[in-house]
Amino acid sequence: MKLPCLKTLILSQNVFNSDCSGYVDTILQLNSLRILNLCSCNLIPSFFEDRNLCHTLRNSVLEELNIAGNTFSTQSINCLISSLPKKSLRKFDLSHIIQQNNSCMLLISNFLTSGLPLLQEISLEDCHLNNDDLFCLLKSAPYCPQLKSLNISSNFDLSCTAILDFLTVMLSINNTLSNISFTGTCLWDMKNVLTLIDILNKAPNVCCIMLDNVPESCQEKLLQFWKNRFGDKASCLASSFCKLSIV
Hints:
about 250 residues, alpha/beta, two-stranded parallel sheet, elongated
């Protein structure tokens, strides 16, 4: 290989055909490669079912893999997640995937429970998650001890109650999770906002949350809580969308 120092390769939004798995397999053989972005590359299920590619991926030292916006079947998602490099993977983006069925989340959950000691970020935005999927995701909490960032935005079938129940358990198990995004999910009311505040109040590690569909009257309670919590460090962006963080 003539690129012995290549660490990052971004191929996002290129259109690849079904025969390109051999090229990616060759790229993954680079011992220096740490970050690979294949977002929205028109990849189809057969790409992820290539045996050579899966074998090379499993033995790679990738730390970040972005395969958002591609098409998966049950078999292809199973091949992919069973081939991810568990000992090195830190960031995994599976957002906006096109599913040929809705069984992907169970497979992802099973993968996460197999143990990912270094995983810090996972994005499941617009993955057609429902309330039961959040329950499956909870099972992974003890097996991802370094998880810091979770994005479950744009999953329109999630309810406030399910999100609140999920956060209650997740944050009680995982004391590293600090960045949570759940915009584009449910419509918040005062009762649920107050419950959210109570949950966050018991989780001092959380320093950034993003949500929307919060009525103005509820926003005031949320913003006041955040400012009281972080004082001069508090950063609040609020309109129909709320981002609460620290600076």
